[in-house]
Every structure is written in C-alpha cells, then in structure tokens.
Amino acid sequence: MKKRLMILSNSKDPYINHAIEEILFTTFVDYEQILFLWVNEPSVVFGRNQNPWHEIDVRFAEEAGIHLLRRISGGGTVFHDEGNLNYAFIEHHSIYDENAHFEMISEAIQKFGLEVKVTARKDITLEGKKISGSAFFLKGMRRLHHGTLLVDVDLDRLWKSLKVNDEVYKARFSIGRTIPSVPSPVINLAQVNPKLKVSDITNAIVDEYYKRNEYDVELQSIDDVIKAHEPAYETIRARHASWEWVFGETPSFSFRSEDGMEYQIVNGAVTPTGNINSILTTQVICDRN
After folding, report:
1. Measured distance CA(277)–CA(283) in Å, rounded
2. What are the pLDDT digits (tens) for 114-159?
3. Which of 66, 96, 155, 268 could form a disulfide with 61 if both were Cys (CB 3.0 to 4.6 A apart)?
4. Domain residues of the chain, as ranges?
5. 59: how many CB neighbours lie within 10 A of its CB?
C-alpha cells in the first residue's frame, strides 16, 4: 500500500520552507507520494544554475527586504509574496506522474469558475497569461515537481524585483553556463475572480488531493519534521540563507561595466580586481543566519 503524506506549512520564512522541502525529498523515502504547500513572505527564488545578478534587481530587493533564494531545481526566476501559493509533489519515480499533478491543480482552480490550460512549456495559463510555472528535480529514485500559483501577488513589486525587461543591463553579461529566464506575461487569479484568496486555492487543492487518494493521507506539521531531523534541518536552512549558496554558487560569467571594463566572476569573486557589489552597481544581501 502506498504511503502518502501532506504537509501545510505555517511558516512564511522562505529558508525554512525550502529546507523543509529538501528534507522531505531526501529523507522521507518511506513515503511514495508527498504534497507540500506553503506561502513565502516577499522573496525572489531562482533556479540552481541561474545568475541572480543577471535576473534580479539585487539592490531593490535588498532595500525592500525581499529575500533571495537559490532552488535545488532548475527553471527560471520567480517572485513570491503572501499572494502566491507554492506547491511541491515529491514522489518515487515508479509512480511519478506530472500530468496527474497538473490535472489536480487545474481542477482545484476550475472549481472557482476559472478555465485554465497547461502549455507545452508546463506552465498553467489563464486567459492566455501565465499563473503558474514549474521546476523539476531528479535524484536517485526520487522526483520533485514544484510550482507557483499567482493568486493575488503584488505585480508591481514583482516586475521591480526582476531584471527581465532591462535589455541594456542584461546585454552587459556574458552568461556562460547560466540559464536565463524566459519572460512571460502573467496574471493573478484574483484579477478574474476578485473574491479569491490563497486560502481558497489551498483548501481546494487539499480537498482534491484527499479525494484522489480516497482520504488515505497522513498529515504532519513542519514542527514534526524539524523536531525529527535536527540538526540536519538547521544545517540545510543555514545553507539556503548563506551568501555562499545564494551568490557563490553562480556559474562563472563575465560582466562589462559602464566604463567598458570586462570582469570575470568565479564563485562570486571578481577578477582581476574590484568588488562585485560595486561593479554590478548593486548591494548584495549578507548572510541571513
């Protein structure tokens, strides 16, 4: 018999939530199927092989108190706030089924009279605009599919946080092995159904998950996970929040300053001289431990 688990986070700290997600993926191997749902306070979350300086207005994010976080998965850069719902499906590879995930999320949304579609790029769209993007990770016998749902996100702050439309700035980078984001027009679910809240979508997904699994689902809290997996949890959380992970893990790239000087950046360090914070005319966040 399959063991299924569902966890709803009561924390909005992105470093806590992504540490919990990683522990569920790496440690909870007795469960063939896990659904994890959470909401982050304002954050920009980017893919494992992305360049935060290329993707994000780091100075704006730092001054606005917006967290930056590098995922363990690939994919593009996304903005999170309390109007965005994050979901993760963690499964044994023998039962992994992306189509079932997208179907479940779509049916939950459609309960509110919203017609959504899943695209070939594995986005979910409403009225031709993106409401959900996904990223994926595979290791050993475990697979992870996680994504976002724009319910009532501050879209003005979203676009201010990202460099996606600043072509002049982006042209100064030679991105090397980093993976750039693909920009897409976006829309909130609440722009079509103004009464809709994140809690409504969360409850609809929970109901759908229970129903599809004939209510044979174990429920745990993130406190249960943390207590059972100290000190590993704290080590992972600290790594997610560290400068070495957020910035130092960026694949090597080069950058041309406004005065025409070329700089090579390796592991966050600038050669031949200079300081990446000033060269990129921004101020990077410090370790948030």
Report:
1. 5
2. 999 999 999 999 999 999 999 999 999 999 999 999 999 999 999 9
3. 66
4. 4-243
5. 14
